[in-house]
Every structure is written in structure tokens, then in C-alpha cells.
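Dear colleagues,

As part of the handover before I leave the project, I'm documenting each prediction I ran so the next person doesn't have to rerun anything. This entry is a single chain, and its sequence is reproduced below.
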Amino acid sequence: VMEVYPQVELSSIEGTEVERPVVSVTDADVDEMIETLRKQNAEWKEDDKAAEDGDQVTIDFQGFLGDEPFEGGSAEGHALVIGSNSFIPGFEEQLIGAKAGEEKTLTVTFPEDYQAEHLAGKEATFKVKVHKVSTQALPEVDQSFFERFGIEDGDEAKFRAEIKKNMTREASQAVDNRVKQQVLDALKKANEITVPSALVQQETDGMKRQAAQQFGLGEDFDVSQLPNELFEEQARGRVQVGLLLAEVIKTHELDADDAAIKAKVEELAEQYQDPSEVVDYYMGNDELKTQVKSAILEEKAVDKLLEQATVKDVEMTYQQALAAAQQQAEQGEGEESEA
């Protein structure tokens, strides 16, 4: 007994309405991005003032349930930015007004859906020692700042043009991803197929390796320790999409030659400091060329499917487009997990 690939008879996605964002990057968007870059390149300078929202406090803390300290609830010399929302709700706000050398006792309630079940919904106290308060010193938007981002002559107009170019590319990618996700969701709903368990397991194993790499578990980590249940349903959805797209590619006899692959690589290489080096590296590596070819064929398949749908253009700002694409991707993953 052996598994075989399913016979796929594609059903049309005709009648599906696809929302396509229409985005233009404005000068205000560029200004906002420059402020973001300043914050990313900011330095922290120690100050003797009371901590405010946005300041960084360096603290020791220990958490208690009642009179008993709980595991994982303590640290020393931890740098925390007030307002970053990286701690339990209510923790950071209670540090506003604190000064270096002060000790405080904070009372917080863990969220009901907190990942550590023994803490979920529980009230806890934290004993906190404040070692120092630091304020954020943003770099000046000047020639040296521009030079940090590869504008060697420090020209502001060139810097803004480069920022806008990168943002426009990012917005275009967000639009493409949002449209693509809607098309693939419609394709899956119109074509419920049984997928081979061997392919699902293969995809699951690949996702385990990616997760291990993402969390820095090391090359020697045994990924079999990770339970299949965490990845299996999403893997099943990926396999389903892969089989359906393969059928679209086959039906429409889609292909991509070396010229098309090189053009795509050149497009991808624009964001690197030495694009020609990236192009040579990709074009000299058969495995990477195959990956790029697969991406091109997927794009062509999505374009073919899009011809069957009704496309509705929707005006969006740069930030709205990025947020919409992210939300669409998360919804897609969530639906696969619930399947």
C-alpha cells in the first residue's frame, strides 16, 4: 500500500471579490520613517530625573504569588523601556515617577490567557529595585546620519529619495502579499482535496527545523522533540496550496527562463549594498535559481487565478497597507490552524 498524489480537477474561484490596496508613499510617510530610524539609532543617556513614559529603567525585580516567589519571575540589571508593553499589563505604568536608588512594590494581575497556566489570571506582587533611569537621545538628521544609510555624500535629497524608494517597494510587496493571500484562501475553499500524509509530515518536519533555527536551538537540536500538533494543520494547508498551485501551473503551461529569473533576482538585489554581487551569487547557484523560479511561477499562477476574481481597488495609506497585509497573513495561518 502506498500513497499517491490526488487527482486535482480545479474549480474556479469566479465570484470571489479580492480587495487590492492602492497605496502612495507621501512626504509625511517619509518623515515618519525617518523618525523611526532615529529611534532605532538612538542612544540611552543616564539621567537623575524621575522616570517618564518612553524612558528606560534598569531594574532588579522578583515576583511573588502571595509570599512565595515564582519561577521565571526575577531578573537583575534588566533594561526596560516604559511604554514598550513588553511586561505584564500594569507593570510599566507603576514605574513612572521612579528614580534611581528607589525600591518599589508593584501589584499586577496576569492576563487570563497568559502562556504560563499556573500564573494566568493570578494577582502577583513584584519587588523592584531601580538602578538607573535613562533618556533617549535621538541622533540629529544631518550629514553623518545620512552617511549611516549609505548616502556617502550626505545629501538629504538623495537620502529621502532612497527612503521613499524602499518604502514604495515595501508597500508594493505588502499589496502583492495581501492580494495573494486572498486568492490562495479562495483557491483552498473552492478546492477541498485530500492531501498525502507523507507530504504533510515532510512539510511539518521542515517547519520544525525553521522553528528550531528561529529560536536559536542549534543545529544539533533534535527537532523530533517538537510535537507534530503544533505544526501539522498549518503544514496541511501549505501542502494543499502547493498541490493546487502546481495544477494551475501545469494547466496554463507556465514557465520561467533564465532571463526571467535574472530579472527577478535583480529586483530582489536592489535592497542590497552591492546588487551585482547578489545577482552573480544567485545566478551561479542552481538551488537558489530553482527557488527564485518557483517564486516566479507562483506569482504567475496567482495572476492567472486573479483573472477569475473581481478586483476591487481600495485607497490605503502606507501604514494601513502594511497592517492589512499582516492581518491577512495571520488570519490565513489561523484558519489553517482551526481547520
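The first strand starts at residue 17 and ends at 23. The chain has nine helices and seven strands.

All the best with the project,
I.
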